[in-house]
Specification:
three-stranded antiparallel β-sheet; 7 helices; about 10% strand; globular
Length: about 140
């Protein structure tokens, strides 16, 4: 159990380091950390309604509206009417803007890939099983 406790501590340390990187990267591209999280969410999942983004990030619709305006101003997203429901607004990533924003992470991403290349496939499979479960624990707690 001592090793499990040590790993839990390391994961919390990791989450703090990820936050620091996110804050620094967001500041470099002229947005805040929550805006960067939203941009990442939209990049990974595709277009989402303002309400869906609000629910996913635990924010109000008003906060999402202000966030969307900031991201749109910087060329990272567009807002458009949902063709299936004209009352809904969809947030869609602007590919060029997202590529520009995420280019900041190229070096750290490559370093992680190289680090993971040093481990056996079974170790990496274990991590890819554990991390989503860890994320689910955090999501349930929030």
């Amino acid at each position: 159990m001592e090793l499990a406790s040590q790993l839990a501590g390391e994961l919390f340390e990791l989450s703090m380091a990820v936050d620091r990187v996110g804050n620094a990267a967001a500041a470099r591209i002229g947005i805040n950390h929550t805006d960067l999280i939203c941009l990442t969410l939209l990049s990974r999942r595709g277009p989402m309604s303002s309400g869906e983004v609000a629910a996913e990030l635990g924010l109000t619709n008003a906060a999402i509206s202000a966030m969307a305006a900031r991201l749109e101003k910087h060329g990272y997203v567009t807002r458009e009417m949902d063709p299936a429901d004209r009352r809904r607004v969809l947030l869609r990533v602007e590919q060029e803007g997202a590529e520009r924003a995420f280019a900041l992470f190229d070096g750290v991403y490559q370093a992680m890939v190289e680090l993971f290349g040093e481990y056996q496939e079974r170790d990496l499979r274990t991590l890819t099983e554990i991390l989503p479960r860890f994320r689910a624990i955090l999501a349930d707690w929030a």
